[in-house]
């Protein structure tokens, strides 16, 4: 499976969430609402989730393997950084 598109929508509000991302695979399957979040150790991604009746959040879609999660995170954060540099913001 190949990542064929990454679209980053910057969040203008102050806070930890920096962007919302959509990622497309093989020009056939897309996952929307992946969040780019600024944590204590730097940026990371959070997969789309839904609040359950008991108040917890559960991912709607997520990678099974840690290597796949790392690939997604690396791809998304590289695109986020490229877009930020184009806008003259950087990190």
TrEMBL record:
Domain of life: Bacteria
Keyword Cell division recorded: yes
Xref: Pfam families: SpoVG
InterPro entries, per the entry: SpoVG (IPR007170), SpoVG_sf (IPR036751)
Assigned keywords, A-Z: Cell cycle, Cell division, Septation
Tagged with keyword Cell cycle: yes
GO biological process, one term: division septum assembly
Protein's job: Could be involved in septation.
Annotated family: Belongs to the SpoVG family.
Protein name: Putative septation protein SpoVG
Provenance organism: Oribacterium sinus F0268
């Amino acid at each position: 499976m190949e990542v064929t598109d990454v679209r980053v929508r910057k969040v203008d509000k102050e806070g930890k969430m920096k962007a919302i991302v959509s990622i497309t695979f093989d020009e056939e399957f897309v996952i929307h609402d992946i969040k780019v979040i600024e944590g204590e150790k730097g940026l990371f991604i959070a997969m789309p989730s839904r609040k359950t009746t008991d108040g917890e959040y559960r991912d709607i879609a997520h990678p099974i393997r840690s290597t796949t999660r790392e690939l997604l995170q690396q791809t998304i954060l590289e695109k986020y950084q490229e877009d930020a540099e184009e806008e003259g913001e950087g990190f």
